[in-house]
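Hello,

I think I submitted the adenosine-5'-phosphosulfate job twice by accident. Can you confirm which output corresponds to this input? Input:
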Amino acid sequence: MQHPGLTVWFTGLSGAGKTTISQQVGKSLIDRGYRVEYLDGDAVRQTLSKGLGFSKEDRDENIRRIGFVANLLTRNNVVVLVSVISPYQEIRQEMRDYIGRFWEVYVCAPLAICQERDVKGLYYKVQTGEIANFTGITAAYEPPLNAETVCYTDAETVEESVTKVLRSVLSKLAQDN
Ligand code: ADX
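Support: Only one job matched these inputs. Its output is below.
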């Protein structure tokens, strides 16, 4: 069975839940017979974007590299699950225009909640001055203006967020089949 591809682009603060949700959405899509690939910020920054930092220029470069790969995969009927902070509206819009088959998911959680979770211990390091240019604190995060799906991870369970994304993505994929 040939499925049309789609880039599902998860954006949000560090610790908002992008990776957790995208992994579970991916598993459910695979169970339904879709071809799935993941492009996750932490993994990409150790490989494709190794050496890039967190200035606006470097983040935009990171996003363009990810977009290039996502576009190739999308053209080949893969559902690409991209999870990167991608804090700037302009470059997200550029990716939307470039890839075309683009589904934006805003993984929204208040900064205070992300700080409290501090899954990777990075917010602590920002406080102690070990990390500069940190999104939400010393660097900007521009919320999406036209996301197809919004998950409020402070108010929803992971399961609820996953179901919400999955339903919306499946209905998009079904429309185009
Ligand atoms: S993006 O801004 O270019 O989209 P990306 O998602 O690839 O960011 O990488 C973010 C990850 O890098 C975070 O989840 C965190 O683990 C790590 N990181 C290290 N330094 C920073 C920083 N200054 N700002 C944001 N994330 C950082």
